[in-house]
Amino acid sequence: REDREVKVLVAVDQSDCSKAAVSSVLDRSWPSGTTFEVIHVVEPLAAQYALADARSLRAMLEADQEIFNCAQELINEKTFQLAAIFGKDRVTGQVIEGHIAESIVAQAKIMQADLIVMGSHGRTGFDRIFLGSIAAKVAGQAPCSIEIVKQKMTDDEKQVVAGKTVTKAIMEAHH
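Now predict its structure.
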């Protein structure tokens, strides 16, 4: 049905792959009853507060506030983009504090999302094992379908990556 209510959670950060995810949402048609919630999750520095002296604590609190302000600007920008296409009454946004993957999954459950849309940094190999994959964690725990949008690399970017890889391999061979 064209008027079916679909709830879409769009998880964003400041990366290019996140921009690609938002573009993916903007570039398609959705049923007229679709609503969108845009979220950005901020991991607090609070876990380290207990170890801080008064001066460090003040600096950490100021850094947390600055991070939150930047996150709110990002949410405002992305909700504005979606609202320009789909209407203000169909788009909400918020900054959430917590662990990223767990917070995305929790928000999907709270809003009873039908779909989560998010970008993937496309890490592979050691980087993925070491850093983990937020998208993979969300996909494994999500209460609904998930669309992971990868950013396609340009030929110039592929050459830069290949060049760094070759340079690194040559330098390692000589040491």
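The radius of gyration is 19 Å.
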